[in-house]
Design goal:
The complex is a heterodimer. By secondary structure, chain A is mainly β. Helices cover 0% and strands 53% of the residues of chain A. Helices cover 0% and strands 47% of the residues of chain B. Classes of the chains: A mainly beta, B mainly beta. At the A-B interface, β4, β5, β9 and β10 of A face β4 and β8 of B.
């Protein structure tokens, strides 16, 4: 049981390049989330999904797109990377019912130059 | 969503009990109080959740007074490995509809010294 995994762990992009971050969970969770964390700050929600085939905007969605084609995977895309998107990205998953607990992945450190 | 206020940083020593208080004056009736822990270069980890009075698990205790406008996370006999950032979050549970709306503040940086 790997929990929540993220690929890649590190990435350096040039301004204008695109990339996709992959999140996978093996806990059969309905809900999945993408957050970003800037130095010294808390996490901010980018997008989330309440089930396969559905996505919704969070607190800071601009510049990002997501897809949830399979229940276990949640992809975060950057179409045209900007230096302001330099951050650590965390994926999380959670059950549809029960308590408030979200399970987080190890993070992806992205630098845009 | 209720805003939370907690100390920016705290210092303690090994073996001591640490209490971190969070203020949430505008907490709504159906809001739960949840605490997460984050180590450097890792994702946050759920510690404890409560609605009222006291909740205890193998890691911590959570004290919530009757008016629910604040809460206190208590870590018994901390060790060096408890050095981390602790986040207090207030929000509705799944049963209120929609996703788990977690709003993270800057958290409290706890440093445990030998």
């Amino acid at each position: 049981n790997a929990g929540v995994t993220q690929t890649p762990k590190f990435r350096v992009l040039k301004t204008g390049q695109s990339m996709t971050l992959l999140c996978a969970q093996d806990m059969n969770h309905e809900y999945m989330y993408w957050y970003r964390q800037d130095p010294g700050m808390g996490l901010r929600l980018i997008h989330y999904s309440v089930g396969e085939g559905t996505t919704a905007k969070g607190e800071v969605p601009d510049g990002y797109n997501v897809s949830r084609l399979k229940k276990q995977n949640f992809l975060l895309g950057l179409e045209s990377a900007a230096p302001s998107q330099t951050s650590v990205y965390f994926c999380a998953s959670g059950r549809q019912s029960g308590n408030y607990e979200q399970y987080f992945g190890p993070g992806t450190r992205l630098t845009v130059t | 969503l209720a805003k939370t206020t907690q100390p920016i940083s705290m210092d303690s020593y090994e073996g001591q009990e640490v209490n971190i208080t969070c203020s949430h004056n505008n907490i709504a009736t159906n809001d739960y109080i949840t605490w997460y822990q984050q180590f450097p270069s890792q994702g946050p980890r759920f510690i404890i959740q409560g609605y009222k009075t006291k909740v205890t698990n193998e890691v911590a205790s959570l004290f919530i007074p009757a008016d629910r406008k604040s809460s206190t996370l208590s870590l018994p006999r901390v060790s060096l490995s408890d050095t981390a950032v602790y986040y207090c979050l207030v929000g509705a549970s799944m049963f209120s509809g929609g996703y788990n709306k977690l709003i993270f503040g800057a958290g409290t940086r706890l440093a445990v010294h030998p």
